[in-house]
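Section 5.1 Outputs to date
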Amino acid sequence: MASVRRLLKRWRDNYYLSLLLAYSLKPLRFISFQAALQIEQKVRKNGVTIRLPNSNSMSIARDSGIGMASLLFWHGLDGYEPETSRTLRILFERAATFVDVGANCGLYSVLGALWNPNLVVTAFEPVPPIFSRLKKNVLLNQLESRVRCENVALSSTSGKATLFLPKGESLDFETTGTLVKASWQATKANPQLFEVETVRFDEYEARHPMRVDLIKIDVEDFEADVLEGMREVIARDRPFIVCEILPRAHRNLRTCKLVEALNYQAYWITPVGYIKVPRFDCSRPGYTDFLLSPVSTSEIVLNGLDVLWDLKRSGGTG
């Protein structure tokens, strides 16, 4: 058998045979690749369970994040927002508390609690039907003792506000709801309107004391208000913040000023590393998430986050 394998390998490397096989099979490879893409795009998985590297299982419940479940089913843990997911996983390992702002169906809240058995999570999701899916996923993964779910929106003021949510065409709810009145969501034909409770996180934390290590913000252009409402806690605890900041005509100047006022450094999260940026109106196709760090180094590009975490833990500023 070994001699047959050696013979086949020699034939494989033969110039004329390799020429024939390569040119004849290349179209088949292309067709197969295109077919696989079409299958992944057209066939959705409603509900999924995947195995994590630490041997825990993570489940997305039925009708509770079909798009996320589909990506996880076809591509595994890196199927959904791979660079952002890896960044959060690195920080989950080191953090004791995680505040998930705009938790949606709870992917990162659930992942964080399963990734680190000591992590305590507070998840904020203001849209009632999406909030019910968040709760469902937390219960399915038996994390209700460590993941606290709040059906409110974080803002710069406490009270009531209108949330604009585009109507979806599938069983999934749209994930692009926003409190921004001048948004495309508000001006799109017949958006769903939800009156939601808003609260400043500084006020919330006064009622539910915690030391915050890590924050994730995904609120569709409302991040400046969220940051404004948690300025006191950020100044006190200096947490790492993973934040979606979308390209907008206003150039995100208000967010930029808040980051500077808090003495934070923004790093653009990309497949090639963490790139230090002075503002958010730079060209950045395809990648909209940033790490807002309480410390920094002189390097423009970082390959990992250990240096920032160690610097913060030592009390440095960079």
